[in-house]
Amino acid sequence: MERLDKSYLNSLIQNQVEENVELEYKSAAALDNTPQKKKEISKDVSAMANSAGGILIYGIKEFDEEEKRHLPKEINPVIRKNYSKEWLEHIIQSNIQPKISNIFIDPINISDEEVVYRIFIPQSNTTHQANDKRYYKRYNFESVAMEDYEIKDILNRQKHPNIIMQYE
Fold this sequence. Notes:
Elements: H1 6-14, E1 23-26, H2 35-50, E2 54-58, E3 60-62, E4 72-75, E5 78-79, H3 85-95, E6 104-109, E7 114-121, E8 136-139, E9 142-145, H4 148-155
Parallel strand pairs: 1-2
Antiparallel strand pairs: 2-7, 3-4, 5-7, 6-7, 8-9
């Protein structure tokens, strides 16, 4: 995975790269050390793994206006000493069952004390349950509870892999 810097984050903001099924922005406040925020972290990360995988960025604030609410407004950095990479990894791995393999947390330095966390979440071949005992998926710009048939479909990814034909 390529290491990124502040210019990458600024390009997302300048180009108004909108959230989608594989990209989500969260402000620094989304990492507050409360049971509700930990529940949201587990919900968002498990939803990405249960869907197509993707990137979750903690430290970019979205616009408050309804018509712009899925667009990045500004860098809203996380205070590293309050929320370390190890703390975030622990929250993710201890609140999602089964644990998600190959999650990569990339801290992007903003200053000596501030950071933005880019989390790469791979698509999984099994379903992952958030700490509220529910299964979530990404749908447009949000994480929503999955239906029974969707859970079964994900479990069948192992049995029926995608085969891509290439012609030379």
